């Protein structure tokens, strides 16, 4: 039994996970914008409380944490969507927990989980994207992660798709994630329909499902899927994967967005090597892929 933790841009999930990737218990909290002022305290307190609860009832081998950013073995070097830099999270938690703690980029965790149990398990060579607050990425080659040791790389979200474009949290302009993350999509829908900023994920999804024929919403969907098809096509041209998996909160919107993304990629004169079809699957482990993947890396 291992403990898997997913530190998201807007939530923390902590789960007890068995050797077959099955989640036995799980707890989540939302991270609000105002929490980001003392984000380290929030993260440490929540993780420590949840881990101690699990340890009381289960024999735990180790702890893995999926991080939305760049990490080395101990530290979060940079997680731009949480405003964290050079943060020795392993050192801080190790003061209170006497178990091995490993940290890893969240998209890589999700990719290896989906490649082992989920949406891309049938394919030797695949790409995985997490679309949530930002965009994360990973490449699976011969069923293994491509994993440069020094810095994790594969920052798909920070490839520039627009010259002098929107300012990104990373400091550059025109990054893919400023046009293709779910945060951008949701914010545009909230603005267009004059919704409360604090609307729950579930309610927002219902609104989009109901209003998707409304010309203004249709326009947002069209523009958003076009941006995604451009970014994903760039990646296909570089890696020529057999299949692509997409996780993060995208999975809830996959029925609405995925057919449009596929047809734009195939019909949009974006691919260097033309294809008859393209396999893009929504993550089947849902938002839990990162948490499960921490036990596999
Ligand atoms: Zn960026």
Describe this structure as you would to a colleague.
The protein is an alpha/beta fold. It has two domains: 112 residues, ATPase, nucleotide binding domain (Nucleotidyltransferase, domain 5, 2-Layer Sandwich), CATH 3.30.420.40; 163 residues, ATPase, nucleotide binding domain (Nucleotidyltransferase, domain 5, 2-Layer Sandwich). The strands form three sheets. A five-stranded mixed sheet has the order 3-2-1-4-8. Strands 11-10-9-12-13 form a five-stranded mixed sheet, sandwiched between helices. The protein has a three-stranded antiparallel sheet with strand order 5-6-7, with no helix packed on it. Strand 1 and strand 2 form a beta hairpin. It is globular. It starts with a strand and ends with a helix. The model has no long low-confidence stretch (mean pLDDT 94). The structure holds zinc ion (ZN). Zinc ion binds next to loops.
Condensed summary:
The chain has 297 residues and is α/β, with parallel strands linked by helices. The chain has nine helices and 13 strands.
Distance between the termini: 14 Å
Mean pLDDT reading: 94
The SSE order reads: EEEHEEEEHEHEEEHHHHEHEH
CATH level-3 fold name of the largest domain: Nucleotidyltransferase, domain 5
Strand order of the largest sheet: 3-2-1-4-8
User: Which structural class best describes the helix and strand composition?
Assistant: alpha/beta
Radius of gyration: 19 Å
Classify the helix fraction into a percent range. 25-40%
Q: How many beta-strand elements?
A: 13
Number of domains: 2
What's the main sheet like?
5 strands, mixed
Percent of residues in beta strands: 15-25%
Distinct small molecules bound, one entry per kind: zinc ion
Shape: globular
Low-confidence stretches: none
Give me the number of helical elements.
Answer: 9
CATH superfamily of the largest domain: ATPase, nucleotide binding domain
- What is the CATH architecture descriptor of the largest domain? 2-Layer Sandwich
- CATH class bucket of the largest domain: Alpha Beta
């Amino acid at each position: 039994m291992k403990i898997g933790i997913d530190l998201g841009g807007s939530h923390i999930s902590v789960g007890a996970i068995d050797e077959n990737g099955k989640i036995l218990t799980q707890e989540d909290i939302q991270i609000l914008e105002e929490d980001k002022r003392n984000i380290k305290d929030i993260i440490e307190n929540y993780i420590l409380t949840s881990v101690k609860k699990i340890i009381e009832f289960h024999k735990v081998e180790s702890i893995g944490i999926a991080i939305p950013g760049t990490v080395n073995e101990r530290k979060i070097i940079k997680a731009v969507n949480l405003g964290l830099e050079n943060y020795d999270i392993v050192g801080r938690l190790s003061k209170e927990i006497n178990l091995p703690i490993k940290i890893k980029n969240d998209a890589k965790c999700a990719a290896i989980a989906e490649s082992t149990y989920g949406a891309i398990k049938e394919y030797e060579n695949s790409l995985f994207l997490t679309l949530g607050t930002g965009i994360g990425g990973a490449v699976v080659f011969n069923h293994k992660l491509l994993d440069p040791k020094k810095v994790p790389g594969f920052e798909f979200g920070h490839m520039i798709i627009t010259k002098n474009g929107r300012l990104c949290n990373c400091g550059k302009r025109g990054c893919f994630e400023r046009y293709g993350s779910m945060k951008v999509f949701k914010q545009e829908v909230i603005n267009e329909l004059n919704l409360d900023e604090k609307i729950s994920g579930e309610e927002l999804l219902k609104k989009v499902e109901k209003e998707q024929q409304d010309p203004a919403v249709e326009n947002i969907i069209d523009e958003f899927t076009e941006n995604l098809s451009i970014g994903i096509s760039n990646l296909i041209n570089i890696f020529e994967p057999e299949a692509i998996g997409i996780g993060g909160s995208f999975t809830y919107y996959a029925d609405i967005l995925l057919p449009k993304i596929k047809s734009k990629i195939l019909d949009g004169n974006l691919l260097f090597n033309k294809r008859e079809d393209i396999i893009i699957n929504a993550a089947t482990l849902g938002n839990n892929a990162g948490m499960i993947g921490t036990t596999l890396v």
